Fold this sequence. Notes:
By secondary structure, the chain is α+β, with helices and mostly antiparallel strands. It has four helices and six strands, in the order αββββαββαα. The chain has helices at residues 2-29, 78-88, 110-147, 152-185; strands at residues 44-47, 50-53, 58-64, 67-72, 94-96, 101-104. It has a four-stranded antiparallel sheet, with helices on one face. The chain has a two-stranded antiparallel ribbon with strand order 1-2. The longest helix has 38 residues, at 110-147. The N and C termini lie far apart (55 Å).
Amino acid sequence: MAEDVASIIAVADDHMKKAINHLESELVKIRAGKANPQMLDGIMVDYYGSPMPINQVANISVMDARTLSIQPWEKNMLQPIERAIIAANIGINPQNDGLLIRLFLPPLTEERRKELVKRCQGEGEHSKVAIRNIRRDAIEHIKRLQKNGLSEDAAKDAEADVQVVTDKYTAAVEKHLTAKEKEIMSV
């Protein structure tokens, strides 16, 4: 029984770690004033009839703090990449010069910064909900074990351990959100 409880806690810990990793990847996509190639992650380009991530059909580089350049490996991919960026609605209009695409990031206004902070808070809330759902599932597993012969004290201890893990990852979400908010709001 003890190894079952330990495995439940380990699985919950692993799933919560994945929720944090997902939050980190989502926060990277939210721009904070500086150009970052990862802002384009998730944009799919029509590559001869099949969708491909933009970073698999072109080289994405940072020209300066507010400019990204996208150089396709095949010249005929300029139009599909440009269409994909426009369709992704990331708030940036691509500039196509026939050889490469430039994305000029406009300076962030105070209003836009607040919108981005709200978006970050929304992502953080999604992560917290995921963590709470993982906690709920782990506690349900522990209660099933209790019905199958796990002592009440051991079940209470296991639930407390799950709560400790949950608190740790909830604090990590808050830490990430605070850091991202500070990054966005700094001019």
